[in-house]
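chain below, 202 aa
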Amino acid sequence: MTVVRPRLIVGLGNPGTKYERTRHNIGFEIIDALANSFSNVSLTPNKRFQGATGEFWSAGERVVLLKPTTYMNRSGQAVRAVLDWYKLEPTAVLVIYDDMDLPTGRLRMRLSGGAGGHNGMKSIISHLGTKEFPRLRVGVGSADKSGDRDGAVVSHVLGRFSPSDRKIVDAVIPMAVDAVDLSLRKGVERSMNLYNGREVEL
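prediction:
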Protein backbone atom coordinates (compact mmCIF):
# COMPACT_ATOMS: atom_id res chain seq x y z
CA MET A 1 0.00 0.00 0.00
CA THR A 2 1.22 3.49 -0.87
CA VAL A 3 2.26 5.63 2.09
CA VAL A 4 0.93 9.19 1.66
CA ARG A 5 3.45 11.77 2.85
CA PRO A 6 2.57 15.45 2.35
CA ARG A 7 4.87 17.67 0.31
CA LEU A 8 2.78 20.85 0.57
CA ILE A 9 1.22 21.83 3.90
CA VAL A 10 -1.41 24.56 3.65
CA GLY A 11 -2.91 26.40 6.61
CA LEU A 12 -6.11 28.29 5.83
CA GLY A 13 -6.95 31.74 7.14
CA ASN A 14 -7.47 35.38 6.23
CA PRO A 15 -4.58 37.87 5.95
CA GLY A 16 -4.26 40.96 8.12
CA THR A 17 -4.18 41.79 11.83
CA LYS A 18 -7.98 42.06 11.90
CA TYR A 19 -8.24 38.28 11.58
CA GLU A 20 -5.30 37.18 13.75
CA ARG A 21 -6.12 34.48 16.32
CA THR A 22 -9.73 34.15 15.11
CA ARG A 23 -11.26 30.69 14.83
CA HIS A 24 -11.06 30.84 11.03
CA ASN A 25 -7.28 31.43 11.23
CA ILE A 26 -6.31 28.35 13.23
CA GLY A 27 -4.65 27.00 10.06
CA PHE A 28 -2.35 30.04 9.93
CA GLU A 29 -1.41 29.57 13.59
CA ILE A 30 -0.46 25.93 13.02
CA ILE A 31 1.64 26.80 9.95
CA ASP A 32 3.48 29.41 12.05
CA ALA A 33 4.08 26.78 14.75
CA LEU A 34 5.33 24.31 12.13
CA ALA A 35 7.71 26.93 10.72
CA ASN A 36 9.13 27.49 14.21
CA SER A 37 9.48 23.78 14.92
CA PHE A 38 11.35 22.88 11.73
CA SER A 39 14.66 24.70 12.23
CA ASN A 40 12.96 28.11 12.24
CA VAL A 41 11.72 28.11 8.65
CA SER A 42 11.01 31.70 7.58
CA LEU A 43 7.69 32.34 5.84
CA THR A 44 8.09 35.03 3.21
CA PRO A 45 5.49 36.66 0.93
CA ASN A 46 5.54 35.25 -2.61
CA LYS A 47 3.48 36.97 -5.30
CA ARG A 48 3.67 33.99 -7.64
CA PHE A 49 2.07 31.76 -5.01
CA GLN A 50 -0.35 34.39 -3.66
CA GLY A 51 0.75 33.60 -0.15
CA ALA A 52 3.58 33.34 2.37
CA THR A 53 5.77 30.26 1.88
CA GLY A 54 8.73 28.52 3.43
CA GLU A 55 10.63 25.31 2.69
CA PHE A 56 12.38 22.59 4.67
CA TRP A 57 13.46 19.00 4.12
CA SER A 58 11.89 15.93 5.74
CA ALA A 59 12.75 12.29 5.03
CA GLY A 60 14.81 13.42 2.04
CA GLU A 61 11.92 15.34 0.45
CA ARG A 62 11.34 19.07 0.04
CA VAL A 63 8.28 20.21 2.00
CA VAL A 64 6.58 23.57 1.37
CA LEU A 65 4.54 25.47 3.95
CA LEU A 66 1.87 27.84 2.60
CA LYS A 67 -0.37 30.51 4.12
CA PRO A 68 -2.56 31.79 1.26
CA THR A 69 -3.09 35.56 1.32
CA THR A 70 -5.99 35.46 -1.14
CA TYR A 71 -8.65 35.54 1.60
CA MET A 72 -10.36 32.32 2.54
CA ASN A 73 -12.81 31.87 -0.31
CA ARG A 74 -10.05 32.04 -2.95
CA SER A 75 -7.53 29.79 -1.19
CA GLY A 76 -7.55 27.34 -4.10
CA GLN A 77 -5.76 29.85 -6.35
CA ALA A 78 -2.69 29.80 -4.11
CA VAL A 79 -2.71 26.02 -3.65
CA ARG A 80 -2.99 25.47 -7.40
CA ALA A 81 -0.13 27.89 -8.09
CA VAL A 82 2.22 26.06 -5.70
CA LEU A 83 1.24 22.61 -7.00
CA ASP A 84 1.88 23.66 -10.58
CA TRP A 85 5.24 25.28 -9.78
CA TYR A 86 6.58 22.25 -7.88
CA LYS A 87 4.81 19.74 -10.18
CA LEU A 88 3.02 18.03 -7.28
CA GLU A 89 -0.12 15.90 -7.35
CA PRO A 90 -3.16 16.87 -5.24
CA THR A 91 -2.54 13.87 -2.98
CA ALA A 92 0.72 15.60 -1.91
CA VAL A 93 -1.27 18.43 -0.26
CA LEU A 94 -2.23 18.49 3.43
CA VAL A 95 -4.73 21.26 4.21
CA ILE A 96 -5.18 22.43 7.82
CA TYR A 97 -8.37 24.30 8.64
CA ASP A 98 -11.03 25.08 11.25
CA ASP A 99 -14.11 22.88 11.64
CA MET A 100 -17.29 23.84 13.49
CA ASP A 101 -18.53 20.23 13.53
CA LEU A 102 -15.76 19.21 15.94
CA PRO A 103 -15.45 20.24 19.61
CA THR A 104 -12.85 22.93 20.26
CA GLY A 105 -9.36 21.46 20.04
CA ARG A 106 -10.31 18.08 18.57
CA LEU A 107 -8.15 16.94 15.64
CA ARG A 108 -9.41 14.88 12.71
CA MET A 109 -7.11 13.85 9.87
CA ARG A 110 -8.48 12.29 6.69
CA LEU A 111 -7.10 11.23 3.30
CA SER A 112 -10.05 12.75 1.40
CA GLY A 113 -13.54 14.21 1.82
CA GLY A 114 -15.90 17.03 0.96
CA ALA A 115 -15.79 20.70 1.88
CA GLY A 116 -18.31 20.42 4.72
CA GLY A 117 -19.53 23.95 3.99
CA HIS A 118 -16.04 25.44 4.45
CA ASN A 119 -15.43 28.13 1.80
CA GLY A 120 -11.66 27.66 1.77
CA MET A 121 -12.05 23.94 1.13
CA LYS A 122 -14.71 24.58 -1.54
CA SER A 123 -12.21 26.78 -3.37
CA ILE A 124 -9.38 24.21 -3.09
CA ILE A 125 -11.56 21.32 -4.27
CA SER A 126 -12.72 23.47 -7.21
CA HIS A 127 -9.17 24.47 -8.24
CA LEU A 128 -7.70 20.99 -7.80
CA GLY A 129 -10.65 19.25 -9.45
CA THR A 130 -10.69 16.52 -6.81
CA LYS A 131 -11.59 15.80 -3.18
CA GLU A 132 -8.80 13.21 -2.95
CA PHE A 133 -6.23 15.03 -0.85
CA PRO A 134 -5.38 14.83 2.87
CA ARG A 135 -6.70 17.35 5.38
CA LEU A 136 -6.36 18.05 9.09
CA ARG A 137 -9.49 19.54 10.61
CA VAL A 138 -9.20 21.40 13.91
CA GLY A 139 -12.34 21.75 15.99
CA VAL A 140 -13.45 25.30 16.87
CA GLY A 141 -16.85 24.41 18.34
CA SER A 142 -20.27 25.19 16.90
CA ALA A 143 -22.06 28.51 16.55
CA ASP A 144 -25.41 29.35 18.10
CA LYS A 145 -27.58 28.76 15.03
CA SER A 146 -30.82 30.14 16.42
CA GLY A 147 -32.13 33.13 14.46
CA ASP A 148 -29.85 34.29 11.62
CA ARG A 149 -27.95 31.06 11.00
CA ASP A 150 -25.56 32.41 8.34
CA GLY A 151 -24.80 35.51 10.41
CA ALA A 152 -24.16 33.37 13.48
CA VAL A 153 -21.72 31.16 11.57
CA VAL A 154 -19.80 34.14 10.16
CA SER A 155 -19.54 35.89 13.54
CA HIS A 156 -18.43 32.59 15.13
CA VAL A 157 -15.60 31.77 12.73
CA LEU A 158 -14.42 35.40 12.56
CA GLY A 159 -14.59 35.72 16.34
CA ARG A 160 -11.84 34.94 18.82
CA PHE A 161 -11.77 32.08 21.29
CA SER A 162 -12.99 32.54 24.85
CA PRO A 163 -10.15 32.46 27.43
CA SER A 164 -11.00 28.85 28.38
CA ASP A 165 -11.16 27.72 24.74
CA ARG A 166 -7.94 29.61 24.00
CA LYS A 167 -6.16 27.45 26.58
CA ILE A 168 -7.39 24.35 24.77
CA VAL A 169 -6.29 25.72 21.38
CA ASP A 170 -2.86 26.71 22.72
CA ALA A 171 -2.45 23.13 23.93
CA VAL A 172 -3.69 21.52 20.71
CA ILE A 173 -1.42 23.50 18.35
CA PRO A 174 1.73 21.57 19.43
CA MET A 175 -0.28 18.34 19.10
CA ALA A 176 -1.23 19.34 15.54
CA VAL A 177 2.45 20.03 14.80
CA ASP A 178 3.31 16.54 16.07
CA ALA A 179 0.53 15.02 13.95
CA VAL A 180 1.85 16.76 10.81
CA ASP A 181 5.43 15.77 11.64
CA LEU A 182 4.40 12.12 11.97
CA SER A 183 2.54 12.29 8.64
CA LEU A 184 5.74 13.60 7.01
CA ARG A 185 7.86 10.80 8.45
CA LYS A 186 5.50 7.81 8.55
CA GLY A 187 2.53 8.80 6.40
CA VAL A 188 -0.93 10.30 6.90
CA GLU A 189 -2.58 7.02 7.90
CA ARG A 190 -0.16 6.46 10.76
CA SER A 191 -0.89 9.97 12.01
CA MET A 192 -4.64 9.41 11.67
CA ASN A 193 -4.45 6.29 13.80
CA LEU A 194 -2.54 8.06 16.56
CA TYR A 195 -4.13 11.50 16.69
CA ASN A 196 -7.77 11.22 15.56
CA GLY A 197 -9.98 11.51 18.61
CA ARG A 198 -7.15 12.29 21.01
CA GLU A 199 -8.14 14.82 23.68
CA VAL A 200 -6.06 17.69 24.99
CA GLU A 201 -5.16 17.34 28.66
CA LEU A 202 -4.96 20.66 30.50
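The chain is about 35% helix and 20% strand. The first strand starts at residue 8 and ends at 11.
thats it, cya
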